[in-house]
Specification:
Blueprint: E1 25-36, E2 39-50, H1 65-72, E3 80-85, H2 112-116, H3 118-122, H4 127-140, H5 156-165
Antiparallel strand pairs: 1-2, 1-3
Length: about 170
């Protein structure tokens, strides 16, 4: 007999991701500690995530949520502890990792299409191919017809979808 999930405060059971407990680990964080000078940003955090699990990191401002995400993307070097993603240490530019910031980082002097194609431009993708792929991505997120608009002409939601396309 398997244990049922503990109910939420309103009595509803917590959702369970089928098979997650038996799925292979995709992210493993062990005894993670990070300091920025005298500030202890992350204190001995351990967490194992299996394929298919959905997890939210919640806490007050300054508790280390973004620091953990930056460690997972390789943007912040590991100080103490261990992190593996699919059995490998995190590294900048990992094509298997996507990170959506709370605020978009669109370049205000570039159109939505040029912003969406920027990552491909940096990687040296041919101009015609990157424009076609960027236009397709913008269409997929509901921004067809807005390719030539600049960030200041887009709503915040549209800006986020444009950033997601890049």
């Amino acid at each position: 007999m398997s244990a049922l999930p503990k109910p939420t405060p309103n009595g509803a059971p917590l959702p369970v991701c089928p098979g997650a407990a038996s799925a292979p680990l995709t992210i493993s964080i062990q005894d993670l500690t990070v300091r920025f000078g005298e500030v202890l940003a992350v204190d001995r955090v351990s967490l194992d995530l299996a394929e298919g699990e959905f997890v939210s990191i919640v806490g007050p401002s300054g508790c280390g949520k973004t620091t953990i995400l930056n460690l997972l993307t390789g943007l912040v070097p590991l100080q103490d502890g261990r992190i593996t993603m699919l059995g490998k240490a995190p590294f900048v530019g990992n094509p298997d990792v996507a990170y959506m910031l709370a605020r978009d980082c669109l370049l205000p002097w570039r159109s939505a299409l040029d912003n969406a194609s920027y990552g491909m431009e940096v990687r040296g993708v041919d101009a015609r191919e990157r424009r076609a792929r960027a236009a397709d991505l913008l269409a997929r997120v509901g921004l067809k017809g807005f390719q030539d608009k600049y960030p200041k002409h887009l709503s915040q939601g549209m800006r986020q979808r444009c950033a997601l396309s890049s």
